[in-house]
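Before our next group meeting I need something from you. Please put the record directly below this note.
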Amino acid sequence: MNESSIMSRIRIPANWVLVDTDIFSGNEIILSEKTKINIDPTYEPHEWVSRKGTALAVPERLTFDSNLSRMSLEWKTKMEILAGDTVYFDYFGALMSFGNHAQKFEKNTDELVFEEFGRIYPFIHYREFFAVERAGEIIPINGYVICEQVSRLPASPLEVFQKKQVDTNIGIVRYVGKSNVKYLNDVYADPEVAPGDIILFMTYSNRPVTIHEEKMWAIQKRFVMAKFYGSYEDIQKTTTTH
């Protein structure tokens, strides 16, 4: 970061991370590290845009308090993001920070951004982050695991020739981080999972994330319903999750 940049002197008391990301830059959408196009990003952009950036400034602490509602986290966890980390985050959660810069058809939306030298930097809430990458290591945070996506086996011979469908309830755990300490809703708790585990998770708890050009799922451990033993093919022969 440039020494003359005011961002080098920013202090964030709690919960928000200042990020440099190309998720949104005018009408330019980043498809991958090598490909970008100009487009009106309104049709399911979460399926293909970049969902990562670089942490420029991190909060001094995280708050876990039901009285702070939107400003607080819904779970107690440790601060694991460091300035300079590559960070992976939820697309829609990040998009909210851009306010009118991104939400063209909404009025009076919050703009949680900092602008300098013609570039827009969003403040993204800590809850929206799935993982960090540091020295080549992927480290899930906020109680998340990162799972390999698997394709459903065809239910009949006729489906063999159809396009493969990704199973949205089962995944193979590839990266595991620390569990959250506790949740505001004490019904939740983080189960133990390990790399290689095949897990069943609650519908709509899977969040898309692309790591090293591979589409994966980010799932908070609290939404893991079961772990399976055996191969995914064996599970598909005996289990219906749809």
Remarks:
- The chain has a mean pLDDT of 81.
- The CA atoms of residues 208 and 217 lie 5 Å apart.
- DSSP finds two helices and 19 strands in the chain.
- The domain at 144-238 is CATH 2.30.33.40 (10 Kd Chaperonin, Protein Cpn10; Chain O).
